[in-house]
Amino acid sequence: MKGKVKWIDGAQFLGESGSGHTVLMDGPPDHGGRNTGVRPMEMLLLGLGGCSSFDVMSILGKSRQKVTDCYVDMDAERADGVPSPFTKIHLHFVVTGKDLKEAHVKRAVELSATKYCSASIMLEAAGVEITHDYEIRDAE
């Protein structure tokens, strides 16, 4: 896997993934940015959410669950001072579907957290406390 990040101006950077996709990162105005893109630490948090969501949906698909919508709300805490790494992150999955079995949703979230999500496992190894929960909603 490869990637490249190029400085644009001020606190703006353009990240390019090895697969050719780009994303603009920027800092807040009080740090020389113009607030035109996500912050790098926000990108890290979004990467965690994307990695874990990918796993959950894949596992639910393999267990033939009829998911119509899925999202994860994330709440992160960071240490005071510089550097200010993440100290705690909570992921709350909301899975909507028809006749979803709670045991399957629970297992998908647990497997992502403990076995499959590389981002989660890496952050936990670095000392970040990561917790997960879920709720199931019936599709109308």
UniProtKB/TrEMBL annotation:
Pfam families: OsmC. It comes from the Bacteria. PANTHER family: PROTEIN YHFA. This is Putative redox protein.
